[in-house]
Amino acid sequence: MIKTASAAIAAMAIAAPAAMAGPGFYANIENNAGWAGSDFGGSTTDFHVGYEGGNDVASYYIQGGPSYIQPDNAAGETVFTGKIGGSVAATDKLGVYGELSMATGDLKSYGSKVGVKYKF
What domain count does the chain have? Predict the structure, then answer.
Protein backbone atom coordinates (compact mmCIF):
# COMPACT_ATOMS: atom_id res chain seq x y z
CA MET A 1 0.00 0.00 0.00
CA ILE A 2 2.76 2.46 0.94
CA LYS A 3 4.71 1.66 -2.25
CA THR A 4 1.58 2.26 -4.36
CA ALA A 5 0.82 5.56 -2.60
CA SER A 6 4.45 6.68 -2.94
CA ALA A 7 4.48 5.88 -6.65
CA ALA A 8 1.20 7.75 -7.20
CA ILE A 9 2.46 10.79 -5.30
CA ALA A 10 5.71 10.84 -7.27
CA ALA A 11 3.83 10.56 -10.58
CA MET A 12 1.53 13.46 -9.61
CA ALA A 13 4.48 15.63 -8.62
CA ILE A 14 6.16 15.00 -11.98
CA ALA A 15 3.08 15.13 -14.23
CA ALA A 16 1.19 18.08 -12.71
CA PRO A 17 3.62 20.81 -13.83
CA ALA A 18 3.62 19.48 -17.40
CA ALA A 19 -0.18 19.56 -17.49
CA MET A 20 -0.20 23.15 -16.19
CA ALA A 21 2.66 24.47 -18.30
CA GLY A 22 2.95 28.23 -18.27
CA PRO A 23 4.72 31.06 -16.49
CA GLY A 24 4.72 30.91 -12.71
CA PHE A 25 3.87 27.24 -12.20
CA TYR A 26 6.34 25.03 -10.33
CA ALA A 27 6.82 21.73 -8.49
CA ASN A 28 8.33 21.63 -5.01
CA ILE A 29 9.41 18.51 -3.16
CA GLU A 30 10.60 19.34 0.35
CA ASN A 31 11.49 17.28 3.43
CA ASN A 32 11.44 18.70 6.95
CA ALA A 33 12.77 16.59 9.82
CA GLY A 34 13.17 17.30 13.50
CA TRP A 35 15.39 16.23 16.38
CA ALA A 36 15.50 17.07 20.09
CA GLY A 37 19.17 16.57 20.89
CA SER A 38 19.95 13.19 19.32
CA ASP A 39 16.32 11.97 19.51
CA PHE A 40 14.69 11.91 16.05
CA GLY A 41 11.07 13.12 16.19
CA GLY A 42 9.95 12.45 12.64
CA SER A 43 9.71 14.00 9.20
CA THR A 44 7.26 15.38 6.67
CA THR A 45 7.82 15.26 2.91
CA ASP A 46 5.73 17.63 0.75
CA PHE A 47 4.95 16.88 -2.91
CA HIS A 48 3.52 20.26 -3.92
CA VAL A 49 2.63 22.08 -7.10
CA GLY A 50 2.21 25.82 -6.99
CA TYR A 51 2.07 29.18 -8.65
CA GLU A 52 4.20 32.25 -7.96
CA GLY A 53 4.23 35.79 -9.22
CA GLY A 54 5.19 39.32 -8.37
CA ASN A 55 7.24 42.29 -9.41
CA ASP A 56 10.31 44.22 -8.16
CA VAL A 57 8.53 45.26 -4.95
CA ALA A 58 6.35 42.28 -3.94
CA SER A 59 6.07 38.56 -4.62
CA TYR A 60 3.58 35.85 -3.71
CA TYR A 61 3.07 32.10 -3.98
CA ILE A 62 0.45 29.47 -3.34
CA GLN A 63 1.18 25.75 -3.30
CA GLY A 64 -0.36 22.51 -2.15
CA GLY A 65 -0.52 18.77 -2.54
CA PRO A 66 0.04 15.53 -0.67
CA SER A 67 2.49 15.28 2.21
CA TYR A 68 3.79 12.10 3.80
CA ILE A 69 4.13 12.43 7.58
CA GLN A 70 6.43 9.87 9.23
CA PRO A 71 6.65 10.09 13.04
CA ASP A 72 9.50 8.23 14.73
CA ASN A 73 8.50 4.64 15.62
CA ALA A 74 4.90 5.05 14.38
CA ALA A 75 2.87 4.47 11.22
CA GLY A 76 3.10 7.22 8.63
CA GLU A 77 0.17 8.84 6.87
CA THR A 78 -0.46 10.90 3.75
CA VAL A 79 -2.40 14.15 4.21
CA PHE A 80 -3.08 17.25 2.12
CA THR A 81 -1.04 20.34 2.92
CA GLY A 82 -0.93 23.84 1.51
CA LYS A 83 0.98 27.09 1.88
CA ILE A 84 0.41 30.68 0.84
CA GLY A 85 2.95 33.42 1.32
CA GLY A 86 4.75 36.39 0.00
CA SER A 87 7.25 39.14 0.56
CA VAL A 88 7.46 42.92 0.21
CA ALA A 89 10.56 45.06 -0.24
CA ALA A 90 10.21 47.75 2.46
CA THR A 91 13.45 49.43 1.29
CA ASP A 92 16.34 48.50 -1.02
CA LYS A 93 17.94 46.55 1.85
CA LEU A 94 14.97 45.47 4.00
CA GLY A 95 12.31 42.92 3.10
CA VAL A 96 9.31 41.59 5.02
CA TYR A 97 7.94 38.08 4.39
CA GLY A 98 5.21 35.80 5.66
CA GLU A 99 3.62 32.40 5.15
CA LEU A 100 0.45 30.63 6.28
CA SER A 101 0.25 26.84 6.13
CA MET A 102 -2.27 24.10 6.86
CA ALA A 103 -2.50 20.32 6.96
CA THR A 104 -5.46 17.95 6.99
CA GLY A 105 -5.51 14.59 8.74
CA ASP A 106 -6.43 13.35 12.20
CA LEU A 107 -4.74 16.35 13.79
CA LYS A 108 -5.56 19.30 11.56
CA SER A 109 -2.78 21.82 11.95
CA TYR A 110 -2.08 25.39 10.98
CA GLY A 111 1.10 27.41 10.99
CA SER A 112 2.51 30.82 10.32
CA LYS A 113 5.89 32.31 9.60
CA VAL A 114 6.80 36.01 9.56
CA GLY A 115 10.16 37.67 9.33
CA VAL A 116 12.38 40.42 8.08
CA LYS A 117 15.47 40.07 5.94
CA TYR A 118 18.22 42.70 5.86
CA LYS A 119 20.77 42.71 3.01
CA PHE A 120 24.28 43.98 3.83
Answer: 1
